[in-house]
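Target chain:
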Amino acid sequence: MIHPLVVAKGAILNPVTAARLLKSLIVLLGASRLFAAEFSARIVDNVGNPVTGAHIVAYCNESRPDGTYRRVRGLFALNSGPNGIVSGTYKQPKAGCEKSVRLHVDKEGYGSSHYDEFRPLYVVRRKVHADDLHRIVQLSGADFNVEMRNMLTSDVDGPFQELVFYYEDRLRQALRSLAEDPEAGIPARSLLAFIGVPEDLRLVARLGSPKGPNFAFAYVWLYGVTCSLLEPSSEAEWSLLRRSALGEYNEYGVTRGAIQSLMLIASPRSREILEEVQSHNSLRTDNSFGTKMIARLTADAIEYIQSDPPPLRDQGLEELGHRVARALRIETWTGNGTPQYNQSGDKALIFINFDVGSDDWTYTAAFQRVDETWVLRGVRETSAGLKGSALATLLRRKTK
């Protein structure tokens, strides 16, 4: 026998009505489960240790029925518990939104990480200082390889590139062996490009152009690579320069670096690619800053090649540094720093300084001595910022 269901003080439902309500409630609960999604993952640091108290936020780009952008929709914000485990539920996004999922993972004292997909494992990078490299280069065998990988996947503070350059004779082989590592590969390739040995650039070009860890700047790491491709001898290298110059990576810095290298190579093939870039850019209908800059840079590069410049090599390193500064075709050169040599003395860095209105720019050029002659191996912009006087003026304006 079914007893009446008491639903409120002084109110009862007959058995038939009560059964109908119970059935409706079950249907509603089942439907809510259909629209709920489960999230479960683990957060570790870059050496594999679980991280408790890390914060993970997920969101996606929601679109209208016609496919146009509507809004950023937050999905969840969770913290990792013991053993780095994080779990929870969230409202299932629509199909279009689900395809644009973005996740941000961070914790105080660690570097943040970005992802564009749901994964069972997320990594936050430890923070370390570049000076730790002095200790690592004293190691050997498996200890050296493990520590080097750990450092490449960490968030490094300090002049890391310069220290790697100083110890390059000790580190290049390790960097080459890590170039295909899923986590350390891109940092290793970037450092090889900074050192600039041609055979290492051939390896980097052959391995392709994977996206970097930050989806917002997925190909920014290629800027340093394109700036060091000064002696391309393989089709993979020429292809990377051409694709970069044509803007296929949608990263202005990468395009700028490729155009600069094609200019400094100053060969018939590099000029041919620059003319293709010029023709391609002229067909663009937008009048954006980027389009104008690419047009100007390409024209300057072709003009430089037409001047029939001598190769960028010289027995005198400082004189070669002056020639490189002039070859960059930035009219406000203010001088070069003193060369900084690697431990073996056969490679050097020179900092080239420019005064550009309210900004100070510094380019770093890498050189290698080959048969008693210094050869340019790469040159890239490494810092740009407001001068002290310009910054003070800007701050005064903001306080008024």
